[in-house]
Write the structure tokens for this entry.
Amino acid sequence: MSDALYKFLLDGEVPERSPVRGEIVSLDSTWRQMRQLHDYPEPVMRTLGELVAASALLTANLKFSGALIMQIHGDGPVPLLVVECNADMTMRATASIAPDAKISADVTFAELMNTGGKGRFAITLDPKDRSQGQQPYQGIVPLEGDSVAAVLGNYMLRSEQLDTQLWLAADSHRATGMLLQRLPLPGGAEHQSPSAVALEIESALETWQRGLAFANTLEKDELLKTDPETLMRRLFWEETLRIFEPMRCSFLCGCSRERVAAMLITLGRGEVEETLAEEGTVHVKCDFCNRSYDFDSVDCAQLFATSNTADGVRPAPGTPH
Ligand SMILES: [Zn+2]
């Protein structure tokens, strides 16, 4: 099935105590719709596609009902990549490229995003529903690693303290990825003797190492060209594999005139009036889906007539609205 995410478990010797969990995602029309909205140089398109696949893998791995936003802030030709994935697996993505950027076809991830070593990777968990008083959480770490997969693996090890590895690939047709995560070593069940616990731990480690060894044989091309079900069975044919019902993924930009209005109010009356004076109308284009929103002087007057906010803070570039 395309545009779907599959969760699976590699069962060890004890049923229901799987030592390894995994996910595979294949985004086809979801990714093509995102990509067709922009005309990015190929290396940027591929890197963004990998981040899109990664966002689906991480979102599905969370027990969380809001949105996961991943940003890579670069210090080179690509200052920003943003991907947002919601708990219902709808997602959107955008990249910004420096105006004078020269991007060759064989550019490396580091040359693209971390030229001076000042790149940053940020993950935001936005609960969306603020009625419970929940606030967004944001973690920012240096860009460690020479690929999107390596950066995320390092981030996960640091934040969740769980061994996690990702394999990602994207081309103009598909964005795909796989995640393997080692689950915490099982504590002994009541009836287990210490030697049985030790054996289970040893066997769990072996399952993880075997899983990794097979997954590490995976080439990007194979990841891109093989459907998820075939891939899971091909890679883990030696294991007891439990595959769950796939989750459907799709492209969706949640931007709206109301959200842009709220963003303009946050920007503040002064800033909005300045733009009105200079350009006659406030023109806002959504970076994710290219939709345009225009606010003339009457619209702007209405915004601030119904809001008491006179001045606000300018949202960071690329902040989803
Ligand atoms: Zn939009």
Remarks:
- The pocket of zinc ion is lined by residues 253, 255, 286, 288-289, 291 (CB under 6 Å).
- The chain has two domains: 4-251, 257-305.
- The longest strand covers residues 4-11.
- Residues 309-316 have pLDDT under 50 and may be disordered.
